[in-house]
Amino acid sequence: MAGGAGSRLWPVSRDSMPKQFIPLLDDGHSAFQATMLRVSGADFDRPIVITNNDFRFIAAEQLAVIGCDAEIVLEPQRRDSAAAVAVGALLAERRSAGGACLLLASDHVIGDEAGFGVAVRKVAGMASSGRIMTLGITPDHPSTAYGYIQPGDIELDIGAHSIARFVEKPDRKTAETYITEGYLWNSGNFAFSAETMVGELQSYAPEVLESARRAVEKAVRDLDFIRLDEAAFASSPTISIDYAVMERTKLGGVLAAEFGWSDIGSWDSLHAVKNRDANGNRLEGDVVAIDTHDSFVRSEEALTAVVGLDGVVVVTTHDAVLVSSMKAAPKVKTLVAELKKAGRREAGEHLRIHRPWGWYQRIDIGDRFQVKHICVKPGGRLSLQRHHHRAEHWVVVHGTAEVTIDEAVQFYHENEAAYLPIGCVHRLHNPGKIDLKLIEVQVGSYTGEDDIVRIEDVYARS
Amino acid sequence: MAGGAGSRLWPVSRDSMPKQFIPLLDDGHSAFQATMLRVSGADFDRPIVITNNDFRFIAAEQLAVIGCDAEIVLEPQRRDSAAAVAVGALLAERRSAGGACLLLASDHVIGDEAGFGVAVRKVAGMASSGRIMTLGITPDHPSTAYGYIQPGDIELDIGAHSIARFVEKPDRKTAETYITEGYLWNSGNFAFSAETMVGELQSYAPEVLESARRAVEKAVRDLDFIRLDEAAFASSPTISIDYAVMERTKLGGVLAAEFGWSDIGSWDSLHAVKNRDANGNRLEGDVVAIDTHDSFVRSEEALTAVVGLDGVVVVTTHDAVLVSSMKAAPKVKTLVAELKKAGRREAGEHLRIHRPWGWYQRIDIGDRFQVKHICVKPGGRLSLQRHHHRAEHWVVVHGTAEVTIDEAVQFYHENEAAYLPIGCVHRLHNPGKIDLKLIEVQVGSYTGEDDIVRIEDVYARS
């Protein structure tokens, strides 16, 4: 499942590029990539990625980078986890009704991969015999950021029990009681057979199952993606798998596991799983810290200096800077909600906008002009388009561009410039083997992104 | 005196544009402008600005903006305040040997302008009768950031005394004692007659006076500036006027004054003189603060959010971000020294580089290319130049450019582009009445600023 947002890791994680796709891990991978690599061994069948339509090109690109082949299923809108689980179970059922399915969130971090493998083999075995198993994490501190599971009295296997109950994120005091009483963190990762899950959905959430079934039946293949039917999927209730099934099924079980798990839900939890220096600091990017301790400082570009502070989070990006106490880091969610309410672009959108053909980023803007850096991947082709209010100058600084202007097609190489008058029909294509980079200077009375008439688009975005 | 640096207000104040020229005040003026406006009334003669050669165009431009006519004297290198005072006194002597001169630092903030006027009239009167008066500030807290003056027993006038001694910046405890004992802050602002100061310099710092005299005698007028003779000025000892004269003269006096004075030496002292909101915060620019108190947050561009912090300083600029505890703010000086030692450009140079003809700012850089935004003031003319390693594309986005390429001169208007091949001799000129703005895309094997051969320059920079 790779469809979430993760606003508490703002300004790095935003709706347009949420935390699971950000290279936050020490090895340079995103949590999504790490998750996919985790299930890419010989023990696993071809994985099914269920993600939001908006993230389809990011997901495909990140999978290509790690050489992972997966089925990418697109949710046309968000309907919480029950609908996603139903879709996954139905697709898995086509392959094998009784085989064990592993359902993983794509935004979790695992410290002990071997321990994870041991736990997975165990729950897979139990899933094959008809259980819906959830991975419970033995808490190492009374976290108020996670839901908890109270194991039941029935021992199913070594470390695995029936489930007494699920509980929501507690306050600190309650969390301490839970730990004393042997509760486990609810990791939100499950194992089940397709037929068991489908059966339980039929019993406890038939509307979810029915919507998912129709959405899968009417799904269309679009480029490399499976696009679920929009109307059918939309008719599903928005409910989590915990509420829909787990809290009600009699087939549930929980395995207590310890494999250094974190959902990296906010900057403080990310800091907790990262390697830190002797002062307890984690410094990433162009960062200097003086008389500073137990702090997380990350810079994407600007030189960032921290002086005389303990327990702070400082995150600087191209267009937004966050400074928070470590303790208040989960409140970033509230901050982002407020920014959204105020209509701030930075709340949900990065300055670098990813597109199927590559990306672009504004580098300057002023009265009647705007400048962008555009990167087109080899083979990438922008839509055939026209603008009503701006002319454009393209200066190629890397690679080769094939530029269509009205009827004419011409190649431009490094240090060559093309001029696109207002109103001309044009298209940009990278016919080469290396990235095409160009600087676009827009001049006109209006330079908004919505002054675009798409005449034709190879990525079906017209 | 407007030659100082002010690294404790980094990253806003840098060597290339120090604090006295930054519009830090609530009315949008720089402290330099506020100082000049303060002495622009009918009571004052044409002011003499003594500044560093590097700041000549900034000073001239800021004076033009406020409509202030002044004599701008350029120090070829830094020689501390005694040499500057000597130069000022010698220039003033030419106008009137006995008239009262007011010597002001250009980086101070005055809260009560009327109170300042009253104090100035008082010290001017005493200066005319042969005293070297210094403005002492009645402390409102035991600051460790200022030097102190102990008034002597002799009362010269209401509020004015002889000087018992000058003392350096004390520790907190000593500062408390000083306050109990009636010491005053040493503001570094003076009043004297030219002949008195020249006489005392002759007695106590003859080398300083002699160097200054030769530097003034051999000075040349260069455009609108008086350029002191480099060799003569360089021969002056580097010493402050306090050490050179004030601690030794028998003519000294101090007036106790209260006019809301601050030297805005560091972010905490700037915060103290600014208007603050109900939470004790001062928020400037695109800033959001949640659960935050007694903090100073300033952003030049990026959306800057602060969550759950008390007593912090957050300053974000285009290329550098500072996050400090309010208490540690004076340590920024140490930080900047370390950055300089590490050879960091950001320590001393802004991203926007001011030139006599306008300014330029890098907006993007990559392998074999660089993009700049260039702004040329009406009438501004860049040097006739040539590059060995880069070609340039200029796209005009505002105003009109007169472009010389080898033998050809051509006009370019908004939305027109010029191409400058490697090695061509070229010049850019703004012949119009409004700013000329253009986007420059440089392409080549080396895009460093030092790949420039200046063939001719109207600003004498060849």
From TrEMBL, chains A, B:
<dbReference type="Pfam" id="PF01050">
    <property type="entry name" value="MannoseP_isomer"/>
</dbReference>
<dbReference type="InterPro" id="IPR001538">
    <property type="entry name" value="Man6P_isomerase-2_C"/>
</dbReference>
<keyword id="KW-0548">Nucleotidyltransferase</keyword>
<keyword id="KW-0808">Transferase</keyword>
<dbReference type="GO" id="GO:0016853">
    <property type="term" value="F:isomerase activity"/>
</dbReference>
<dbReference type="InterPro" id="IPR006375">
    <property type="entry name" value="Man1P_GuaTrfase/Man6P_Isoase"/>
</dbReference>
<dbReference type="InterPro" id="IPR049577">
    <property type="entry name" value="GMPP_N"/>
</dbReference>
<dbReference type="GO" id="GO:0005525">
    <property type="term" value="F:GTP binding"/>
</dbReference>
<protein>
    <recommendedName>
        <fullName>mannose-1-phosphate guanylyltransferase</fullName>
        <ecNumber>2.7.7.13</ecNumber>
    </recommendedName>
</protein>
<comment type="similarity">
    <text>Belongs to the mannose-6-phosphate isomerase type 2 family.</text>
</comment>
<dbReference type="InterPro" id="IPR051161">
    <property type="entry name" value="Mannose-6P_isomerase_type2"/>
</dbReference>
<dbReference type="GO" id="GO:0004475">
    <property type="term" value="F:mannose-1-phosphate guanylyltransferase (GTP) activity"/>
</dbReference>
<dbReference type="GO" id="GO:0000271">
    <property type="term" value="P:polysaccharide biosynthetic process"/>
</dbReference>
<dbReference type="InterPro" id="IPR029044">
    <property type="entry name" value="Nucleotide-diphossugar_trans"/>
</dbReference>
<dbReference type="InterPro" id="IPR014710">
    <property type="entry name" value="RmlC-like_jellyroll"/>
</dbReference>
<keyword id="KW-0342">GTP-binding</keyword>
<dbReference type="Pfam" id="PF22640">
    <property type="entry name" value="ManC_GMP_beta-helix"/>
</dbReference>
<feature type="domain" description="MannoseP isomerase/GMP-like beta-helix">
    <location>
        <begin position="285"/>
        <end position="339"/>
    </location>
</feature>
<keyword id="KW-0413">Isomerase</keyword>
<feature type="domain" description="Nucleotidyl transferase">
    <location>
        <begin position="1"/>
        <end position="278"/>
    </location>
</feature>
<dbReference type="InterPro" id="IPR005835">
    <property type="entry name" value="NTP_transferase_dom"/>
</dbReference>
<keyword id="KW-0547">Nucleotide-binding</keyword>
<dbReference type="Pfam" id="PF00483">
    <property type="entry name" value="NTP_transferase"/>
</dbReference>
<dbReference type="InterPro" id="IPR054566">
    <property type="entry name" value="ManC/GMP-like_b-helix"/>
</dbReference>
<feature type="domain" description="Mannose-6-phosphate isomerase type II C-terminal">
    <location>
        <begin position="343"/>
        <end position="457"/>
    </location>
</feature>
<dbReference type="GO" id="GO:0009298">
    <property type="term" value="P:GDP-mannose biosynthetic process"/>
</dbReference>
<dbReference type="InterPro" id="IPR011051">
    <property type="entry name" value="RmlC_Cupin_sf"/>
</dbReference>
